[in-house]
Amino acid sequence: DSGVTQTPKHLITATGQRVTLRCSPRSGDLSVYWYQQSLDQGLQFLIQYYNGEERAKGNILERFSAQQFPDLHSELNLSSLELGDSALYFCASSLIRPSGNTIYFGEGSWLTVV
Amino acid sequence: DAKTTQPPSMDCAEGRAANLPCNHSTISGNEYVYWYRQIHSQGPQYIIHGLKNNETNEMASLIITEDRKSSTLILPHATLRDTAVYYCIVRVAGVNRDDKIIFGKGTRLHILP
């Protein structure tokens, strides 16, 4: 158990809909990362937040957005869903230290768009 | 783009040591070498990391060459549960940095009974 909690674990929704994926980072971790993994595809970095502010952005679609709240949990919002958005979405967290930090991943949220 | 090169797949007999190589010839002085693995459709699992010294923990050992251009992850007694995709990653870590992980394709390790 990495200590990173993601909900829901599974979600089935229709095209055109909007969903929100939630992530609770490990206690004390200030940085949150979101990744997407489509079927048989690699892990693609989407976005990183650090203490509520966006730190880095990857190949995140304009239909997707994220935020990190004052209590440090994060949400990934996916809108106008398409069949190709079906994927595993992972959240990860870390506590950034000058000496190096380890990123820990949650077990993911399975999104199926039908 | 990932800054590492790994073989796409490897086999190892159960009970033997699995040695997974990684080349990172362009590594910078402030970049760490990290290893993660992903067992089918589970979240990536942290294994070990190092800067220049060899490291060992309860899961594995990490051997980094003196010039830091390559490293080897060693699973000392591989079991069937070690079948996974193993990712070697180099990254800067620390305060005020964009320290995301960029995953490459990794090495698919098959442990054979």
Supply the key terms:
heterodimer; A: 51% strand; B: 113 residues; mainly beta; 0% helix; globular
Can you put this structure into words, describing what you see?
The complex is a heterodimer of chains A (114) and B (113). Chain A has 114 residues and is mainly beta. Helix content of chain A is 0%, strand content 51%. Chain B is 0% helix and 46% strand. Chain B has a 5-stranded mixed β-sheet, with no helix packed on it. Classes of the chains: A mainly beta (114), B mainly beta (113). Chain A binds chain B through residues 2, 4, 31, 33, 35, 42-43, 45, 48, 55-56, 58, 88, 90, 92, 94, 96-108, and chain B through 32, 34, 38, 41-46, 49, 51, 93-95, 97-105.
Mean pLDDT of chain B: 92
Average pLDDT of chain A works out at: 93
Rg calc of chain B? 14 Å
Number of H/I helices of chain A: 0
Q: Classify the helix fraction of chain B into a percent range.
A: under 10%
Q: Which series of helices and strands of chain A comes N to C? A: EEEEEEEEEEE
Distance N terminus to C terminus of chain A?
31 Å
User: What is the strand content of chain B?
Assistant: over 45%
Concise synopsis of the structure shown:
Chain A is an all-beta fold and 114 residues long.
List the helices and strands and how they pair.
The complex is a heterodimer of chains A (114) and B (113).
Chain A: E1 5-7, E2 10-13, E3 19-24, E4 31-37, E5 43-50, E6 53-57, E7 64-68, E8 74-78, E9 87-94, E10 104-105, E11 109-113
Parallel strand pairs in A: 2-11
Antiparallel strand pairs in A: 1-3, 3-8, 4-5, 4-9, 5-6, 7-8, 9-10, 9-11
Chain B: E1 9-13, E2 18-23, E3 31-38, E4 45-50, E5 55-56, E6 61-64, E7 70-75, E8 84-92, E9 107-112
Parallel strand pairs in B: 1-9
Antiparallel strand pairs in B: 2-7, 3-4, 3-8, 5-6, 6-7, 8-9
